[in-house]
Design goal:
With 345 residues, the protein is of the alpha/beta class. The protein contains 14 helices and twelve strands. It has two domains: 5-161 and 196-220, Rossmann fold, CATH 3.40.50; 165-190 and 224-299 and 316-344, UDP-galactose 4-epimerase, domain 1. It binds 2-acetamido-2-deoxy-beta-D-glucopyranose (NAG) (2 copies). This is NmrA-like domain-containing protein.
Amino acid sequence: MANLKLILVIGGTGAQGSPVVKALSESGRYAVRLLTRNTASDHAKKLAELPNVTLQRGSQDSQKDLHAAFTGVYGAWVNLDGFTLGEKNELFYGVRAYEIARHHGVKHYVFAKIDYGLRQAGWDEQYHCGHNDAKGRVGDLILSHGQSHSGMMTSVFTTGPYMDMLFDGMFVPEEQSDGSFVWENPAADGKIPLIALDDVGVYNLWIFDNPSESAGLDLEVATDQVSFAEIAATFTKVTGKKGVHKRVPLEDYLAKAEPYPGAYSNWTVTEPGVPRDESFMTWRENFTPWWRYWSEGHAATRDMALLDRIHGSRIPSLEAWMKAKNYDGRSRSVLKSIQDLKEKM
Ligand SMILES: *[C@@H]1O[C@H](CO)[C@@H](O)[C@H](O)[C@H]1NC(C)=O
Ligand SMILES: *[C@@H]1O[C@H](CO)[C@@H](O)[C@H](O)[C@H]1NC(C)=O
């Protein structure tokens, strides 16, 4: 049997990481070392049942653990949990993980990020979202060092909001007594690049399988680029039920949507009232620029022809996704942090 290439996966138990672990394992070409704080969690144990997947206990924010994790691997797929780390720590550990990987002679490093909104929107501070920008800066730094086939190749994998958030989280509509479904949120009328989690694994397998093309590439993915009016209209087309987008002012929305008054962006893991570092955003500070950036259409720049070529059988549209999922506007659990929260409560 051919030797499998060993890939370290950081963030592998998350909503985006799990399909990457599955795709690597299923390919039969890679073995996965999954770094996780809790090797006994249900998520981790399930993934460890896949062929050639092993768990390694450790934290994304421990340099000692990162050294141990990167030792002896061919490649790495790194997606840090910015909500837990905060912008400042994510920047530090994002850079350190990359440096430590270089130290250990990793051959292909894949960094999963979100759009660098502040830069994309012309350095207007209104768009400074810690959750997006920490990853964006690290992505820029990594690619700025160039490619060397005798050293380390690097690729960046960029996602926008998950299409699956129509099931879970901020994109779930509210069912009205008359049977219609209303998306009441502050979204402007720009197109948002939504990515279906089902397609994330194939893209990352392609990145590892095709380093001659993927080295130096920032692969920006989306399944469809749609405005909220289009989401509501597609819902109506697919389900026959009335879908409505109702735009409300950011302030009104945030007051209603924030988990509790003054919640931090890491609200799922932090009790109210703990003192915070100046750099650490509150939920409102984080999601104000988040809604602005995505819904004004700044990121609807994905190269769909490239995505078609890389993943010929990708889910082609929001409409196709809604049909395949039997989408009915009701919530289902898909995002890890929300599940974690439910387990905690
Ligand atoms: C990978 O998994 C297969 C199926 O479980 C197993 O037969 C094989 O020995 C594993 N390979 C390595 C290198 O561990
Ligand atoms: C969440 O952020 C706050 C504010 O910086 C910090 O004090 C707290 O330790 C963080 N919680 C976790 C679990 O990281």
